[in-house]
Amino acid sequence: MKKALVLGGGGFIGNHMINQLKSEGFWIRGVDLLLPEFSQTQADEFVIGDLAQPEFTDSVIDMQFDEIYQFAADMGGAGYIFTGEHDAQIMRNSVCINLNILESCRKSRNTRIFYSSSACIYPEHNQLDPDNPNCEEKSAYPANPDSEYGWEKLFSERLYFAYQKDHGIDVRIARYHNIFGPQGTWTGGREKSPAALCRKVAEAEENGTIEIWGDGKQTRSFLYIDDCIKATQRLLRSDWSGPVNIGSDHMVTINELATIIMKLAGKPLQMQHIPGPLGVRGRNSDNKLIKEKLGWQPARNLQNGLTYTYQWIKQQVTIANNNDEI
Questions:
Q1: Model confidence pLDDT, tens digit, residues 264-295
Q2: How far apart are CA 180 and CA 77, in angstroms?
Q3: Helical ranges in the chain per DSSP H
Q4: Residue 92's closest CA among 32, 7, 173, 151?
Q5: Within a domain: residue 258?
Q6: Domains held by the chain: number
Q7: Could you give the CA distance from residue 219 to residue 129 in angstroms, rounded to a whole number?
Q8: Which neighbouring-strand residues pair with 116?
């Protein structure tokens, strides 16, 4: 039986990866600070602890694994990473996590690992035009991310490649672009825009109003979780290290995203634009390289993925409201 290690296995992407690996017959060890919030883990073994502590990291990377997926990070949506209030915490925690993981892999002679980087590494000056952002992989340098979260991710990419060069650890690196879907954070400040807008629409009264940060003309692309999992596995199981974008190349404005969700919900709401943390003006996944190297493209369109996501978040809102009434 093949063995897999999923670091950050209590999080959104990590939990979905565990489910996929389990369906393929893997024995799985999941590791995180917390168990998954919205479902029971399917991991054969789930270890709770802090990967920022080297002794703990050594204890969970203590044998040979066929596949290692590293999703663990201090992260969240724009309301968390772009406010500037958490920069030191984000950088310290995530850098410590990645240093410890690579050292533990080196000592235990685990030589194949996937690292989840982010589109936030791309230069801010290439993403000022919402209609024509440049997120081609080679555009990452000269570096100029718009957040400390982006700087940490870029540093960690270089850290992984340094361990590949000096210690023979075979790394695979993807730059994720706005992954969304059911069982992700949908409230509390760390949620990303698809989940936040689904929640706002689900909570709104008929013919009511939802709040949109900024003018809503900032652009993004969004990739459904199932596509993310399949692309990630294809990269890890390939002979190519990356880094490569994993995302959708279908770009929409935040206003358009909100409109799609309102139509799915059957709620003709008004949008009220308010000040808020925004990130870059435009961002879209450039998928030329992943098509060339891996022959991959997304299988689901945005509306299809949002249909599943909205229904799940609507159910969570209903559960939360019923609990409040008890």
A1: 999 999 999 998 877 789 999 999 999 999 99
A2: 11
A3: 12-23, 54-60, 78-81, 87-108, 148-167, 193-203, 225-236, 254-265, 288-294, 302-325
A4: 151
A5: no
A6: 1
A7: 9
A8: 174
Asked about 141 being catalytic, the answer comes back as no
- Give the pLDDT confidence of 89-106 residue by residue, as tens digits: 999 999 999 999 999 999
Domain membership flag for residue 103? yes
Residue 266 lies in a domain: no
Torsions phi, psi for 62 (to 5 deg): -115, 10
The gap between the terminal CA atoms of the chain, to the nearest Å, is 47
What is the span of the domain harbouring residue 108? 3-180+223-246
Catalytic residue among 69, 80, 122, 149: 149
CA–CA separation, 77 and 56 (whole Å): 27
Token output for 99: 């240093």
Which residue's structure tokens are 């945005």? Answer: 302
CA 11, CA 126: separation in Å to the nearest integer?
30
Q: How far is CA 197 from CA 39, 177, 181, in A?
A: 22, 17, 13
Look up the CATH number of the domain holding residue 92: 3.40.50.720
For tokens 């893997």, the residue is: 26
Would 319 be classed as within a structural domain? no
Omega before residue 142 within 30° of 0, cis: yes
This prediction's pTM? 0.94
- Rounded CA gap, 235 and 231, in Å? 6
Q: Note whether 193 and 216 are within 8 A (CB).
A: no
Tokens in use for 113? Answer: 């690992």
Tokens 């998954």 correspond to what residue? 36
